[in-house]
Amino acid sequence: MAFLKVVPLEKALEVINSFQLEPKIESVPLSEALGRVLAEDVASPVDVPPFDRATVDGYAVRAEDTFMAGESEPVRLKVVGEINAGDTPTVELEPGESVYISTGAPLPGGADAVIQFEDVDREGEEVIIYKPAYPGLGVMKAGADIPKGKVLLKRGTRLTFKDTALLSAVGFSEVKVFRKPRVAVISTGNELVLPGEELKPGQIYDINGRAIADAVRELGGEAVFLGIARDNRESLKALIEKGIECCDIVLLSGGASGGIRDLTSSIIEELGEVKIHGIAIQPGKPTIIGLINGKPVFGLPGYPTSCLTNFTLLVAPLLRRLLGRESEVRKVRKKLAHKVFSVKGRRQFLPVRVEGEKAVPILKGSGAVTSFVDADGFIEVPENIEILEAGEEVGVTFFG
């Protein structure tokens, strides 16, 4: 068993990228597609609008019949019918004829313009027109909004309400999306209790289970929280096996250190293979990466900030790949608010809070709950750097 044979972060990512996991595709009803990620480009199967339609209430005319209209010599056209939105026109305009038409209604045959009713007078069965109309006046042509065949949304788009509205407008009742990867989430430790339970001396509430599960959901995955494994082989093995049975990926927090209570790596080795046990980063050095039945298993650190930093570095890229969202990494450049000291030879990821154009380091330690809660993300301090000066530009990688 490879125990704490520390490897560079790049090696860990290389191992994760080598996992034979491919995005899976499913069709879902449009009513359930909000927030899902498209698995293919979507083109419009129809013209929008599907017919030439009126954009105003008024009179559909043949524009050429109005060319001689003027204030002193208006043109009179016979009104031969009425068309409302939703009607199917049965009239074909002949020279000298018009039809009253409502906004959104289809133009009758022969018509190529609509004059709004405020610009004309009506006397009995005639409409009096005082100025010429031109072809296309008051009309939206078929396909003018969305032509048939136009690509509306690209593969990898995470659908917003505007996107689902657009799909509805062109008649989609279902769409193909990437299936949500199912992720088993397991917290470990005798000291942990679930929120809502009585807190006894020496115990703390579990934060990682909630944080990891919701981080998975925020990315678009499906999180299955399996509970807290106690520091004994039977409890931990049972939950790992349950996670492998029901999910695509298993995430554990805690139980990854080199201490006497570390069982995670030995159980992974028993059920599958430990690929990595130890990454040359701080925090999160004792992180475990393994495979059981072809499914990735991650043993993340127990401290909240370490846990979520390593989730962002290692697990989030895999989830984004399975969701077709590889490009969605949130990073910004900010100026460091004050000087930071690091240990030379150790690659460090330091939590920071973003305030305007500044990145404010949070130095309470990764075991403090507020280190994680107060942080917007983290910065990387390379192993050959001992000091980052105040005002120095740094790259901030956001959590989530």
UniProtKB/TrEMBL annotation:
Recorded E.C. number(s)?
Answer: 2.10.1.1
Q: Which UniProt keywords apply?
A: Magnesium, Metal-binding, Molybdenum, Molybdenum cofactor biosynthesis, Transferase
Q: Which SUPFAM superfamilies match?
A: MoeA C-terminal domain-like, MoeA N-terminal region -like, Molybdenum cofactor biosynthesis proteins
All copies of domain MoaB/Mog, residue ranges: 184-321
Which InterPro entries does the protein's record reference?
MoaB/Mog-like_dom_sf, MoaB/Mog_dom, MoeA-like, MoeA_C_domain_IV, MoeA_C_domain_IV_sf, MoeA_linker/N, MoeA_linker/N_sf
Q: Which SMART domains match?
A: MoCF_biosynth (SM00852)
Task: State which pathway it belongs to.
Answer: Cofactor biosynthesis; molybdopterin biosynthesis
Q: Which GO terms describe its biological process?
A: Mo-molybdopterin cofactor biosynthetic process
Q: Give the catalytic activity.
A: adenylyl-molybdopterin + molybdate = Mo-molybdopterin + AMP + H(+)
Required cofactors, per record? Mg(2+)
UniProt cross-references to CDD domains, sorted A to Z: MoeA
User: What GO molecular functions are on record for this protein?
Assistant: metal ion binding; molybdopterin molybdotransferase activity
What domain of life does the UniProt record list for this protein's source?
Archaea
Q: What GO cellular component is one of the record's annotations? A: cytoplasm
**NCBIfam families found in the cross-reference section:** Glp_gephyrin, molyb_syn
Q: Which family does it belong to?
A: Belongs to the MoeA family.
Q: What is this protein's record name? A: molybdopterin molybdotransferase
Please name the taxonomic classification of the source. Archaea, Methanobacteriati, Methanobacteriota, Thermococci, Thermococcales
